[in-house]
Amino acid sequence: MLDWIHLTVPPAPAMFAQLLVGLINGAFYAMLSLGLAVIFGLLNIINFAHGAQYMLGAFCAWFLLNALGLGYWPALILAPIIVGAVGMAIERLLLRHIYGLDHLYGLLLTFGLALIIEGVFRQQFGSSGQPYAIPPELQGGRNLGFMFLPNYRAWVIVASAAVCLATWFTIERTRLGAYLRAATENPVLVQAFGINVPRMITLTYGAGVALAALAGVMAAPIYQVSPLMGSNIIITVFAVVVIGGMGSILGAIVGGFALGLVEGLTKVFYPEASSTVIFVVMALVLLVKPAGFFGRAR
C-alpha cells in the first residue's frame, strides 16, 4: 500500500511547480478572457480575432526590440497602444457595419480577420518561434524552500492580477464604466447627455484589443513569439469565457485563474487529461448553468 501511494502521489516540489505553471497559464487566460468579456459585454461582438491580436502584441514587442532597439519595458507600453490603435481602425472600418446583426456575423468576420493575420505572419516568419529575452531586471529567481520561483513568472502573475482588478474596478465602480454599461442598454439616452457613443464604442474595442496585446508582450519571453501562439490559446480562452459567463468581467478573471490552477493540478495527477479538462468543465457548466457561473441569461 505504501509503495502504491508513493507511486501515485507526486512529490511536493513537482506539485508546486505544476501549480506555478497553471497559475501562469491562468494569468494569460484571465487577461485574454477579460478582453473578450469587455468586447462582448459592451459591444455584443464575439471577437474571434482576439488570439491574433494577442500574437500581434508579441510580434510588436519583437519588432520594437529588433528594429528600434526598444526593450521589454517600452514595449509593454507601446505595443498595446499600437495594436489597440489597429483594433480601433478595424472597428471603424469593418465591425461598425454589422452592429445590430446576429452575433454570427461578427464571429465570422473576426474569424476571417484572424485567419488573414495569422496567414500573413506565417508566410513571413514560418511556424517556428522567435526568441524574446527576459528583461535583465527580472532574470533569475528565488528559492522558497519548497520550490524555485523565477522572478519573471512571479512578475507575470502579479502584473496580470493588477491589470485585471484595475479593469474590473474601472468598469464596475467608476462613472466611465457606468457610461459604458448604459451605452449598451440605451445608446440614444446616453447620447442625449452629450456623450459620443460611437467614439466610446471604438475606444472600448481598442481597449479590449490592447489587453490582448499586453498579454502577448508578457507572454513573449515565456512562450516565444510565434504566428501560432494565438490560435493555440484562443479556443481555451473561449472555454474560460463560457465557464465564467459571456460578458462577465468578474467571471473572466476568476475563471481564468481558477481554470489555470485546475489545468495545473490535472497535469500532476492525470497528465493525459490536462489538455481536455477545461472543456470537460465547460460541458458540465453548460449542463448545470448555461449562462456561466457569473453570467446572466440574455
Descriptive account of the structure:
With 298 residues, the chain is mostly helical. The chain has one domain. It contains twelve helices and two strands. It has helices at 2-8, 12-43, 50-68, 72-93, 103-125, 151-173, 175-185, 187-192, 197-223, 229-244, 249-269, 277-288, and strands at 141-143, 148-150. Strands 1-2 form a two-stranded antiparallel sheet. Helix 3 packs across helix 4, helix 3 packs across helix 10 and helix 6 crosses helix 7.
Please summarize what this structure is.
With 298 residues, this protein is an all-alpha fold.
Tally of helical segments: 12
Rg measurement, Å? 20 Å
Report strand order across the widest sheet: 1-2
**Portion of residues within helices:** over 70%
Number of domains: 1
Question: Biggest sheet, in brief?
Answer: 2 strands, antiparallel
Global structural class? mainly alpha
The tally of beta strands, per DSSP, is 2
Coarse shape: globular
Proportion of residues in extended strands: under 5%
**Unreliable stretches covering 5 or more consecutive residues:** 1-7
